[in-house]
Amino acid sequence: MYITELDRPWTDTPFVFQGFVLGTKPQLDALKKYCSSVVVDFDRSETREEPRRARTLYPEKASVEHEFEAAGAAMTVSESMMREVIASVRIGKTLDAERLRIAVVTMTESVLRNPDALVLFAQLRDKGEYTVSHALDAAIYMITFGRFLQLEQTQIEFLGYLGLLQDIGKLRLPKQLLEKRDRLSVEEFERAKLHVNYSAEILRATPGLPADLARRATLHHERHDGSGYPNHLRGPEIGTIGSIAAIVDTFDALTVERPYASPIAPSAALNMLYKWRGVFFDANLVEQFIRCIGIFPVGSLVELNSGEVGVVISQNMAKRLQPRVLLIRDAAGNPMRPHKLLDLSREPKVSKDEPYRIRRTLEYGHVPLAGEELFMK
Asked: What is the CA radius of gyration of the chain?
């Protein structure tokens, strides 16, 4: 329930915020201790319910090879839409909710057919402007994670909206602040944090978006231990959707080029999330996210024990160390035409007695590769 008024001044109670979601027993006990009656806003209570953890199975309806072209088309539609969104915000226009809906539904349907194709296409494309690429990557990862968690399709689509739009408020910040290469001063950091409020304002002013999107767009910088912002929420107060947004936003930010930081390998980013589980992020969701992304994430460039180089094109959920790999360079570094597909779970042989295995992962960009050429014959 959303508690909107107390029978005594808020300053006489331990509740920090004037208006909060009553979601834990300690909160209820404190409420009983300090108040005889409260006022509940039932409309806001309904929109603040976390999604029911229904189990919805999504059988794979297409191979990554067959879905790849459709995934590319979904990416083209979504990238064009995000550029329009950014242009609209910069000149103060209202967002086009219908265009957003089409982009979210198109991406979601691709991921539901195959969970790897859109992630693969996104990782191999030219990233371009950070604002656009981060929004698209966050949406794709959140949609993919929602599928992995077997959420209902409407909940997965909500995650897509959130990934695309939760950072839209950054467009109201000065460009020199966003692109500063040095550490932000205390004053600059406080100003940068305002982007979550700006995002909420922009989304509230846009008719046709999902209910409660504006509020949940403020959650991706909250942290499990209360050290986040803007409201220093803790644990259950952040909720499942907010926790997913926080994990994905952090993972993507760590693995891409930013003005003030170089990217780190996806495996290193996953290790950092694992160390932060239960402190900054919900422990169970971090572990589930690592399972979803995989030890060798889709799109990773890997070197095999043969010396050949390939790109991971799909996960093997039963055998995490044995994904499907498309070889694109021979041991001498020469392009392979046609590409050679290996399903490592079937233990193909390098030689008579030695099966193929992944020796190491390579940094993104180590081997130039465009998505359009990945499945060329």
From this structure: 22
Q: Where are the chain's structural domains? A: 2-47, 64-293, 301-373
Amino acid, single-letter form, for residue 60: E
Instruction: Record the tokens describing residue 128, joined without a space.
Output: 């371009």
Task: For residue 358, report the phi and psi dihedrals to the nearest 5 degrees.
Answer: -80, 125
Maximum C-alpha span of the chain: 80
pLDDT: which is higher, 313 or 320: 313
Rounded-to-5 percentages of helix, strand, coil across the chain: 50, 15, 40
Give the integer Cα–Cα distance in Å for 160 and 107: 8
> Which residues make Cβ contacts (< 8 Å) with residue 147, sequence separation at least 6?
58, 111, 112, 115, 156
The answer to whether the beta carbons of residues 244 and 145 sit under 8 Å apart is: yes
**Does the predicted TM-score (pTM) go above 0.70?**
yes
Strand partners, 358: 304
Give the up-direction half-sphere exposure of residue 134: CA atoms within 13 A in the CB hemisphere: 21
Determine if residue 82 is left, alpha or beta; phi over 0 gives left, psi from -120 to 50 gives alpha, anything else beta.
Answer: alpha
Fold of the domain built from segment(s) 64-293: Hypothetical protein af1432 (1.10.3210)
pLDDT digits (tens, 9 = 90+) for 364-373: 555 556 666 6
Give the number of other Cβ atoms within 10 Å of residue 345's Cβ. Answer: 14
